[in-house]
Each structure stands twice: as structure tokens, then as C-alpha cells.
């Protein structure tokens, strides 16, 4: 499928799959007409950090790019999990990027105005834990000045923060955009409000989605901190109790809500860390439907969709999407996938 | 005024500045500086934004506010400011768009005003507040959804409504801001974000001195007095609303 080559001002397309397997294609601006009174739509308010940092590996004198990829401790900006790349930038596809020099604990990095030390090499030679010098204010100022949004070669124009923040973006904790949120506008939210559809949010620190290295990509998604406000948990639990649906805007919302669901299928509010992997064998406890981008076989997001529908259904959606010229990736078109008659299947097992 | 509300909310906590997360643009002189000082005295978490690094550091050091250097009239500064503001304060409850540009000084008739000076007044007084508010709208609405309420104050002027000769660039930009505030308030009500336009009156500030160098400053309002009026209005906006004024709770997913 063709990747969307940048942020777009038009509405894009939306493919829908209802719980009985019926497929439809419409304009994404119609998303405000979907769902039923009493349903609750849940979105992620994470804003995206400028997590790509060009700089120098002091010990070798070589240029590098560091992509901040995850939190070591929730929202402590002095420590990050990060992926190292050799010299170059997003214009070279990640799988063709030069390797970084060998990194060892104690190595120093100069990243524009920022100074960092390799604290540890994690379970892959390019996956590092970094410690940044300075306090929160200095580090955020350095990121604001020097960091660029993480981007991939299929988007030729350099991205700005305003391209990667969704309308809901509130706190800068994500390393890549919770991009399903690009499907939402304030106009859509007001349509839902008028139709009695509840809207609630959580924050989930979406990590890096791809590195170009198959070994490294297997370790994704990394652990991701999230926070569910009490009102959001209450809205979801109420909807479920009344037999209404919970619709997640994006994979991050699914991951957070399923991680926060405890026994009896009740969502708990508060801070947590999502360590769960969602796939074909997951019995979704809380989420009934997902709005997401177009994902293809082999991506971790595709694995997550298998919790909603079988591969054969997902493949026929993708065939239809290709025929309708859907665009993939974070600035592309959208899909709404309702969980397929799951209960029957799990009873059968 | 609005005294009749007192009974309705006597069982509810009176809002205070303590713990509020507030951003003030143009926070190093005049009304902005007085606002930063009073907010800090009231226990608010404050971020101030201004263009001059030395002034920002001086006020940050004096008040304990977070100082951010940036120019709201520059598009490129807006998101880096939004990133640092929300990253440092952990969200935002109140945004005070106070930074203003007079346009050409000494003040000139419109026919003598360079287009660039009009553009600058619009950039700082109208487009800047629009951009910054838009970048922070996610944070403000998140605060409202969490039940904290959210307020945007746009500092206005009587030049927004009266046709004062020589105040054309400034007046046109403030008139635009006034209308922007009204429309945004209508649109954002249901999201729990209130927009206030406040005309602080003629104050003894550097901006006034630049506009009218020979003014009798003893006749001018003290910025400290104007600041406390602005903060009273903010607290009033934050106080619990009468039931019919409450935004629809279904949007918030409030437990019923």
C-alpha cells in the first residue's frame, strides 16, 4: 500500500468493519456520524516529543543520530531508552542506515546543546539507556531547540512539531505520534457530544514504532507508561455496565485500557506501565472497536488488530483498501474495526 | 456582583490560585510582571514567556516562576514554548495572553503606518495568541475534562472598541482579538474552557510610556491593581458553576 507522504489537510478515507463482518468505505469526515448514544470514545492526549537528536559520539568522533524511544522511569527526562543510528537522517530508509559506532557504558554523546552518557547497552547493541546532564528545564529546552520529530523516509519534507501533535495533544510524553488521533477534529467531538456519545481521554506514552533492524523491531513495543484519569475509568465502566461500546482511538489506547483492566473486566484509573502485548490470542476485555491506520502483515500494530479480527478478515480489508487507493502510515487513511464475534470463538476453545 | 451565587456554592470549596498551572506571556514588565508576582504569591505554578533572556531570568529568579524565552509573534517559537510549558507544568489550567505590540512608535495615523508595522501588531496581538492557544488547547481541554476547569484570558484594550486616532494598528489587532475571544468562548463552552477578554484600563506601564511619553503617570492605574482585578476574574471563572451553566457532563464521562 502507498504510504501517505506527509500531513494532509483533506479528510482522508475511512473503512469500517462492523461486528458482523460488513465492510464499508466512506469519507473520514463522517466519523462524527458513527457510534450510538451511550458509547464511549477514548483517545490518547499524549503530545509528541522532538525525539530525533543529531550529534556526535565523542569516543569515536563519529556523527550519530539518537532516537529517544522510551522512558526508563515515567516522565523522568534525565533518563531515556534510545536507539542509535549511524551518520545520516530520516531521508535514508531506516533499514539502509549506517550502523552507529560501537557504544559502551560511560561513552559520552554531544547532541546539540544536550550532553548525555551511555548508562547501559540494553539487550541489543543499538538499544541504549542514556542519562542526560542538567535538570528538567534545561533538558526540555535542549529538546525544544535541537530535537526533531522522529520521521521516516516516505515523508520527504522535514516534519515540525505542529505536524505531529494531534488536536488533543496535551503533555509531551510520546516518542512518536498517537497518529490515530489525527482522525479527530473538534468538530467531530462536538458532533459526538450532540449525539450523546461520551468522549474520554487517557495519556499513553507511545514509544518508537520501527527501527529498520528486524532484531530490534522484535523488541517493540517497549514498555509504555500510561495514566487513566478517574473520570475516564468511570465513563468506560459505566458504558460497559450498560451494554454500550468502548471505542479506542488507536493502538495505544487499546494497550493502555487492556493493561488497566483488572479481574471482572473493570478498568482501574491511575498510573501504570503497559508491558502487555496484544495479538491474536488476546481476549479483549474492555475495547469493542478500534480506529486505526492501515497496517500490513509484519507490523506490530497488525498483530494487535488480530485481537479484533482474524487474519482472513484483515487481509480482505487490506485488499479492499489497496483497491480504493488507501494510504498507509501515520498520515494516511483510517480504519474502524469492530471486534468480531469473539465470545463464541473463545467459548469454542 | 453575581452575589446571588454565594448561597448555591457555600458547600463548595472557594477556588484559590494555589496549585493552578498558569502561563503568562509578556511576563517581564507592566501588567504581565504584576500578574506573575501575584500568581506566585498565591501559590500558583507559573510559566512566564518573554523575548529578552536577561529580563526572563531576572523575573524567574525573583519570583520562582519558570522563565521561557520566546516571541509569540514568531510562528517557529510557538510549539517549542508549548512543549516546555506543558512539560514543565505537567499540563495547563490558565493561559494569559498578555504580550502586546503597539505597532509603530511613536504612534502614527494609519495612512503613515508601514504595512510591516501593522503586520507586527497583528502577529503579536492577534495571530500569536491564536497560535499559542491552539497549541495549548489540548492541554486546556484535558484539564477541563479532569474537572480542573480551564480559562484563557486575552488582554484587551478600549482601543479595541473605540476609534482613537493614531491607535489604528494596535486597535485593529485588539479588535480582532476581542472577537476571536468571543467566538472561541462560544465554541469552547461545551468543552469546559472559558475565554475572557479583559480590558485592564490605562496603566502606568512601559507600553503606555511608549505610546504616550508625556502622560501624567499619577493619573494612570497601577499595574498591580489591574493584575489583582484580572486574577479576581479568573477565580470567578473557576468557581463552581450553577448547574445549568455546567458543561455537559456526559462529555466528561462523569460518574452518574
From TrEMBL, chain A:
Q: Which domain of life is it from?
A: Bacteria
Annotated keywords? Cytoplasm, Isomerase, Queuosine biosynthesis, S-adenosyl-L-methionine, Transferase
Kindly list the GO molecular function terms attached to this UniProt entry: S-adenosylmethionine:tRNA ribosyltransferase-isomerase activity
Under the heading Pfam families, the entry gives:
Queuosine_synth (PF02547)
Region described as Disordered: 1-21
Give one GO biological process term.
Answer: tRNA queuosine(34) biosynthetic process
The name this protein goes by in its record: S-adenosylmethionine:tRNA ribosyltransferase-isomerase
TrEMBL record, chain B:
**Which keywords fit this entry according to its UniProt record?**
Oxidoreductase
Q: Which InterPro entries match?
A: NAD(P)-bd_dom_sf, SDR_fam
Q: Under the GO molecular function aspect, what terms does this record hold?
A: oxidoreductase activity
| Top-level taxon | Bacteria
Give the family from UniProt: Belongs to the short-chain dehydrogenases/reductases (SDR) family.
Protein name, entry field: SDR family oxidoreductase
- Organism, per UniProt? Eiseniibacteriota bacterium
Amino acid at each position: 500500500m502507498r504510504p501517505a507522504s506527509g500531513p494532509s489537510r483533506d479528510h482522508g478515507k475511512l473503512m469500517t468493519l462492523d461486528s458482523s463482518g460488513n465492510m464499508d468505505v466512506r469519507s473520514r469526515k463522517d466519523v462524527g456520524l458513527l457510534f450510538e448514544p451511550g458509547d464511549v470514545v477514548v483517545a490518547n492526549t499524549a503530545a509528541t516529543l522532538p525525539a530525533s537528536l543529531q550529534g556526535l559520539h565523542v569516543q569515536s568522533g563519529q556523527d550519530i543520530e539518537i532516537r529517544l524511544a522510551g522512558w526508563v522511569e515515567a516522565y523522568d527526562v534525565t533518563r531515556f531508552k534510545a536507539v542509535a543510528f549511524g551518520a545520516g537522517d530520516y531521508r535514508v530508509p531506516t533499514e539502509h542506515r549506517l550502523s552507529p559506532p560501537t557504544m559502551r557504558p560511560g561513552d559520552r554523546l554531544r547532541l546539540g546543546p544536550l550532553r548525555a552518557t551511555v548508562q547501559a547497552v540494553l539487550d541489543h547493541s543499538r538499544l541504549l539507556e542514556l542519562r542526560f546532564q542538567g535538570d528538567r528545564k534545561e533538558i526540555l529546552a535542549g529538546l525544544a531547540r535541537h530535537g526533531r520529530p522522529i520521521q521516516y523516509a516516505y515523508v520527504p519534507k522535514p516534519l515540525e512539531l505542529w505536524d505531529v501533535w494531534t488536536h488533543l495533544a496535551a503533555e509531551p510524553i510520546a516518542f512518536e505520534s498517537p497518529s490515530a488521533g489525527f482522525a479527530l477534529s473538534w468538530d467531530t467531538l462536538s458532533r459526538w457530544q450532540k449525539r450523546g456519545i461520551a468522549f474520554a481521554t487517557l495519556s499513553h506514552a507511545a514509544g518508537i514504532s520501527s527501527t529498520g533492524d528486524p532484531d530490534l523491531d522484535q523488541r517493540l513495543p517497549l514498555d509504555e507508561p500510561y495514566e487513566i484519569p478517574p473520570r475516564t475509568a468511570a465513563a468506560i465502566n459505566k458504558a460497559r455496565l450498560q451494554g454500550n461500546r468502548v471505542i479506542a482511538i488507536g493502538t495505544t489506547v487499546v494497550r493502555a485500557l487492556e493493561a488497566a483492566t483488572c479481574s471482572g473486566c473493570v478498568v482501574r484509573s491511575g498510573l501504570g506501565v503497559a508491558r502487555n502485548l496484544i495479538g491474536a490470542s488476546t481476549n479483549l476485555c474492555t475495547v469493542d472497536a478500534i480506529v486505526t491506520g492501515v497496517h500490513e502483515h509484519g507490523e506490530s500494530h497488525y498483530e494487535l488488530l488480530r485481537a479484533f479480527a482474524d487474519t482472513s478478515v484483515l487481509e480482505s480489508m487490506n485488499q479492499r483498501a489497496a483497491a480504493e487507493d488507501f494510504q498507509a502510515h501515520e498520515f494516511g487513511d483510517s480504519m474502524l474495526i469492530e471486534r468480531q464475534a469473539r465470545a463464541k470463538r473463545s467459548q469454542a476453545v | 456582583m453575581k452575589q446571588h451565587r454565594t448561597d448555591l456554592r457555600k458547600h463548595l470549596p472557594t477556588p484559590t490560585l494555589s496549585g493552578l498551572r498558569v502561563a503568562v506571556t509578556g511576563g517581564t514588565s507592566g501588567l504581565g510582571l504584576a500578574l506573575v508576582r501575584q500568581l506566585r504569591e498565591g501559590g500558583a505554578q507559573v510559566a512566564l514567556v518573554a523575548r529578552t533572556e536577561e529580563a526572563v531570568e531576572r523575573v524567574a529568579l525573583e519570583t520562582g516562576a519558570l522563565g521561557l524565552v520566546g516571541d509569540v509573534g514568531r510562528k517557529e517559537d510557538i510549539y517549542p514554548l508549548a512543549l516546555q510549558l506543558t512539560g514543565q507544568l505537567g499540563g495547563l489550567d490558565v493561559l494569559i495572553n498578555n504580550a502586546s505590540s503597539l505597532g509603530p512608535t511613536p504612534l502614527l495615523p494609519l495612512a503613515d503606518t508601514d504595512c510591516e508595522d501593522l503586520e507586527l501588531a497583528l502577529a503579536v496581538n492577534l495571530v500569536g495568541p491564536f497560535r499559542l492557544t491552539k497549541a495549548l488547547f489540548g492541554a486546556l481541554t484535558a484539564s477541563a475534562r479532569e474537572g480542573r476547569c480551564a480559562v484563557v484570558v486575552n488582554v484587551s484594550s478600549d482601543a479595541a472598541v473605540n476609534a482613537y486616532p493614531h491607535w489604528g494598528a494596535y486597535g485593529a489587532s485588539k479588535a480582532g482579538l476581542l472577537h476571536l475571544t468571543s467566538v472561541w468562548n462560544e465554541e469552547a463552552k461545551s468543552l469546559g474552557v472559558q475565554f475572557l477578554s479583559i480590558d485592564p484600563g490605562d496603566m502606568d506601564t512601559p507600553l503606555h510610556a511608549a505610546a504616550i511619553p508625556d502622560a501624567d503617570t499619577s493619573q494612570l492605574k497601577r499595574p498591580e491593581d489591574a493584575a489583582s482585578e484580572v486574577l479576581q476574574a479568573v477565580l470567578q471563572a473557576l468557581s463552581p458553576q450553577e448547574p445549568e451553566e455546567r458543561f455537559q457532563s456526559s462529555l466528561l464521562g462523569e460518574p452518574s
